[in-house]
Amino acid sequence: MVSAALSGRPTADADAAVIAESLAEPDRFARIFDLHADEIHRYAARRLGADQVSLADDVTAETFLVAFRKRRRYDLTRPDSRPWLYGIAANLIAKHRRTEIRKLRALARTAEPEGEAFEQRSVDRMDAERLGPSLAAALAGLATAERELLFLVTWAELSYEQAAEALGIPVGTVRSRLSRTRAKIRSALEGTR
0.70 exceeded by the pTM? Predict the structure, then answer.
């Protein structure tokens, strides 16, 4: 196993220690930004869409501003601050859910894009293009809480425990909500195959 110092990746308990230090020395909180800003930005950019780069920049900046302001309330027994940061980002992104839903519904109405001849497309690409509008419609039909949980687990690759922490819900709720969400998406896509 490569040590944290050699890999450039901090140990999980480093976050709690840095946040604790920042209570006396606020400039230390910049380390949390340095460690996690790129990851939070990637998540925000995926959630908001490629055409919303400046909004993803704003959400990322605001996430760390909110985190800095609320750092005194951070539970220092939680060594990894990523779930906390994802929770803040998710709340900020939720403010933009109306736009997200409109975009998903518009994508659902979009016809399959024109492109290469049928013979030149791979089966996977054809399935993805064919299912794209249906998948977008299925995602638009989910409740905000369901969609946010799905994206935290699939795009941000948070564990169930981390997603529960990010959303402030029990792990059992994560499991059952995710199961219901997957069933809704499967059901919505069954008619398109």
Answer: no
